[in-house]
Amino acid sequence: MREKATTLYIGPQHPGITGNMMVRVKVEGDTIVKATTEVGYLHRSFEKLIEKRNWLQSFTLLCRFCVPEPDPVEESYARAVELLEGREVPERAKYIRVLVLELARIASYLLWYGGQSASLGLYTIGQWSVGDRNYILDLFEELTGGRVYHMYIWPGGVRRDLPKGFENKVLKTMDYLEKRLDDYDDLMFDNTIFRKRTQGVGIIDKEKAVEWGVVGPPLRGCGIRSDIRIDDPYEVYNKLDFVVPVEEGGDIWARALVRRQEIRQSIRIIRQVLDNIPAGKYYNKIPNPQKWALPKGDAYTRTEAVRGEVGMYVVSDGGTHPRRAHFRGAAYVHAITLLENLLVGENISDIAAIMNSLGTCPPEIER
Amino acid sequence: MMINDKNSQKIVDIIQNYARKHSLWILAYGTGCGAIEIPPTMTSRYDAERLGVRGAATPRQADVLLITGYLTTKTLKRVIRVYEQMQDPKYVIGFGSCTINGGMYWDSYNTIKALDRYLPVDVFINGCMPRPEAVLAGFAKLQELIQAGKADGARKYKENLEWYRANQKKVIPNWRMPEYNW
Amino acid sequence: MEEIKSTIIQRIKTHFSDATEKEYPYNRVDFSVKKETIPAILFYLKDEMGFKHLSHISCIDWLEENEFEVVFIVWSPTDKIKVFVHTRVDRENPVMDNVDMIWRQANTYEREMREMFGIQFTGLEAPEEFLLEDWEGPPPMRRDFDTEAYATNTYWERPGREDAKDIRETIEKRSGEILPDFAKKYTR
User: Fold this and answer.
1) Cβ-nearest to C140 among A39, A48, A328
2) Confidence (pLDDT) at A176
3) CATH number for the domain whose boundaries are A44-332
4) Contacts of A52 in chain C (CB under 8 A)
């Protein structure tokens, strides 16, 4: 007998949902037959406001595009502005930018550890990893002055040089984290509950993955080696030695394993950056921002964030204000068309786990 | 609890407020970007649970509505509904500069600029983003107000419902919501 | 890299007579086409030339020229090259062909463009509302929509932030609040 379909509203106020968004699911018994995403709860009209700000003022808005990991957005915008103007960036600044990006990546993955495990009812890991994330936020605070929002990467370089003794602090934190990661493995990846709840759930089809617009860890979880840092290298990533981890399967488990290895790769990159960072200027001075006009043209830059590829399409009409700055977030595709596809046939209890494994970030969809 | 004798009522109030201030369950609704500083506040380093602050899953179990940042008109509608579903005693904390005066979204067409026009706010925490210490200080202030019996936002809301409703309906043109009968 | 780029330009130019190219350094190639050619050129790029990944769709309002510019950015994972396809749409009557049968995720971009710029896509199947709710007024991302005037008319603003005046004295006078020492030493 066919069961009657019921419509359920998961969100916007729901403890399992990642941020302020809503998924409307039609269920038969416990199985989802249709899912629709509804977004727009966080639409602050950033792109309209950036048209009213000048090239430098936009940075206060930019870091709010994606809250858990704001630096890739700043970096891609700064790089787009540099491309438009043809401005050179000192070598030291490029290394510092990579350092900041990788620190942000680790911080964001630690937050993901908490979210992914809490979605399956394992709350201890979140207590540990979010607590450890504070050590990285402390580093950010010393470097940039802010815990969450940094506004540190600017056109022409970075805002400040590394403080005295900062390298040692970073290395110390990395040593600590590396030891800590084994504890997380014991608690999360050796955990039978985690294994059983994630293996074979939320499978992304490998053949269709690229066409569907899957990027980042979910794509690498399908067995496709794709990373902007390697494919379309920016800053100094082509001079650094690191591996892009790939897992087969395409389920939550594979995506989790990819992220688990990526933290270790990020630590490796940070160590290399601190070994090889050259001395010199960290900033090429820009003109008075009130009068700073950029030549006419457009530029599109992409950065590998934890959620996948993020991009910034910047258009200048030759004035002191951007004509258009359009942000492309990974969640824009992941949380709407992909999620609607993935949820069909899954259980209600797996919705939160699948959303977390895709790294859904609503503010980046709505902007 | 209501007692006819004036002095006994005072004692009951003190005990009641003391109990209330040590059990502040906040609703798990991350309305804006401020939601990112809530996990650090709740977890090991800052550990808000020692103040009796912890998360609650549904509006009917929650005591505190934490408005973490800017509210778009679309979210405001949901927040009003959530607030009206909450049971007494209930408090509202406005978190971040954007709930006070619009913050950096002062010229945005989609966010409200002052939260206390639409909901009764007991405590404002300023900053963008407020640090976990500031959040804890905000909770401590709320506890102080509760003990003194001054956190009476819910009563204000009931008494001035018409004024709040008029403001709310001004920014939400299509008002299709049930009227809760307290 | 240069070889692959010139092959791409040649193949596109032979297949689509209205395409004009523009070369950029590194791994970027730009084409401008008429809006009627858009589905055909995107199909060709995806199925015949390996540009499998749709990276971005953007729209710019050129108010002075009375036109919208729509940009499609596609990426080839094998050749590591990005191709930009630009097209222009009349601002008075903005109608375009829907491309969500090529990439499903284009549907989301088109919904946003329909709401924010008012561009109509023929045959687009999606709910009318995307980011906004009960919006009355012009599409907000158009250049002639004044967001500041709208905000001032619609929302109540707390007085006191009209200018950038120094308010430290006011804070000190306010009910017993003491300004910390570190705040006193900074001057405007």
Assistant:
1) A48
2) 92
3) 1.10.645.10
4) 147-148
